[in-house]
Structures are given as structure tokens and as C-alpha cells.
Amino acid sequence: MHFHVLHRETIDSTNTALKRMASEGASEGTCLYADEQTAGRGRFDRHWLSPRGAGLYLSILLRPKIETTYLPLMSLLGGVIVFDALRALTPADLALDIKYPNDILLEGKKVCGILAEAGFSGHALAWVVLGMGVNVGQTEFPDGLLYPPTSLKLAFGEQCPHPTREDVLQGILDATATRYAEFLDHPPAILQTWREHSSFAEGKIITVSVGDRKLEGTTRGLRDDGALLVETAAGTVEPVTVGDVVSAR
Ligand code: BTN
After folding, report:
1. Which residues of 211-249 are buried (b: 16+ CB within 10 A; e: fewer)?
2. Which residue, among 55, 23, 51, 25, has the nearest Cα to 38 in the 3D structure?
């Protein structure tokens, strides 16, 4: 696939800007990254702190010709793409994982968050913007984040030079070319790939907050629509599609 990569020093949000370009007809493979975001967004309308030069703030425009029912799987695809990219750039003794649905954990801490947003033309899917925020050079984070954060710099340590933002960008584009082609060929196959990459797929004791509600249980795989199945102490199996998953153990 062909990528057209655009760079901005400062932007409100690469996702917001690329969504606008998508609705104005930008082509598949258009990518936008910035050194800094002034209004970076996370899932559930949260703020994504995006200090200048510290992270990779990247959005990729895709126009998959797939059934709308496969749309939730695009979110899992985003996680697999960044996982692959970071795996190729990271020493094997550093643990990488995908926390449902698509946070990337490095040594158990969040190193990347992904925000997938879609646009429709009538009932048909017109575009998907995959937004990725990778913590690269941060040495500190504000208190009170929902999940303990890390960066490549912190995880690699002083002794070992960490990949640059450009290295991560290139790695993500390479992984996108491979994984997106596979996805278009047979979307449900991403479920198995995701399971192979994530310790959260099976037998993980987790807590999920869905609004004010807290659901606790053990993960029991993915459903065909990408929902995570969680078996509660009462023995019921509930599908989780939204909510924040934390690992209890
Ligand atoms: C999350 O973990 O809640 C998702 C965070 C996604 C952040 C990225 S940074 C690039 C792109 N532009 C945004 O405004 N958000 C995404």
C-alpha cells in the first residue's frame, strides 16, 4: 500500500485533522503525525497529553471495503499493528502485551494508546482513522493517570539507546502494510492474531469499569464481534465491548 506522510509541528489533534481530511476526500494511506498536540484525545473523550517531541502522535487513514459488522475488529487491528512494530524494535527480554482492546503494555505499563474513529456514507463504512500515541522519550508523567504509564526511554534504560519517533513511525507503517492486507483478505483472522499477542485473551483476572459499574471476572476469549468474554464469580459470561480493563493479577 502507498503511504502519503504529512508532518506538522503543532496541531490540535492528528485524529481530528485527519478525520476532516477524510471527509474532504483524502486517499487511503494518508498519514499525519505531529511533534505536539494541543488537544490530543483519548478514548471516552479523555485528554491525551502530548508534549512536544516526547511522543509519536500519529493518525493513519484507511478506507476498508468491509462489512460494517467488522468495524470493531479494526480497533483490534490497530493494537496488533503497534505490537508488531514495537516487538521488532524492542529487545526480546522486554515484555510486550496488548491490554483489551488495544493498549500496548511494555513491561506491564502503558506505552501506547489507540483511538479508532470511523465515518460513514449512508450505511456504508467510508473511512477509519487509526490514531496512535506512542510514549517514546517521556521521562516523567503526571500523577493520577488511569493506568501506569511508561515510555520507550524509561523501559530501555540508560544503557540501551531507544528507537526514535521516526523509527517507530516507520515500524508502524511497515506493520500496517502487512497486517492491513491480511485484514482485508479475511477480517475475522485478526481475532486469532490478537489472541496470540495478548495475555488478556484467556484466563486473566480483570476488573472492568463500565460507567459506574465494576465487573470482575476471568477472561474467556474473544467473541466473533471482538467483544471480550468475562466469566464472573457468579458463573455468568458477559461480553465487554467498552470500559477500562485493568489486570487484577
Ligand atoms: C487512549 O489510550 O485513550 C487512546 C489515545 C490515542 C492518542 C492518539 S495520539 C494521535 C491521535 N490523535 C489524537 O488526538 N489521539 C490519537
Report:
1. eeeeeebbbbebeeebbbbbeeeeeeebebeebbbebee
2. 51
Write down the pTM of the prediction. Answer: 0.96
d(CA 244, CA 222): 16
- Same domain? 191 vs 227: no
User: What is the residue range of 183's domain?
Assistant: 4-197
Q: In the prediction, which pLDDT does 26 show?
A: 98
- Which ligand 1 atom is nearest residue 110's CA? 2
Closest CA to 147 of 240, 48, 81: 48
pLDDT tens figures, 82-112: 999 999 999 999 999 999 999 999 999 999 9
Q: With a cut of 50, list the residues of the chain below it in pLDDT.
A: none
Q: Cα(227) to centroid of ligand 1, in Å?
A: 21
> Cα of 198 to ligand 1 centre, how many Å?
20
Same domain, yes or no, for 126 and 211? no
Is residue 174 domain-shared with residue 244, that is, in the same domain?
no
Q: How many domains does the chain have?
A: 2
Residues 212 and 145 in one domain: no
Pocket probe mutation, ligand 1, options 48, 57, 165, 245, max atoms within 8 Å of Cβ: 48
Give the residue carrying C-alpha cell 489507540.
114
N-term to C-term CA, the chain: 40
Please tell me if the CB atom of residue 137 comes closer than 6 angstroms to any atom of ligand 1.
Answer: no
| Position in ligand 1 atom list of the atom nearest CA 132 | 8
Ligand 1 pocket, residue 42 CB under 6 Å: yes
Same domain, residue pair 8 and 121 = yes
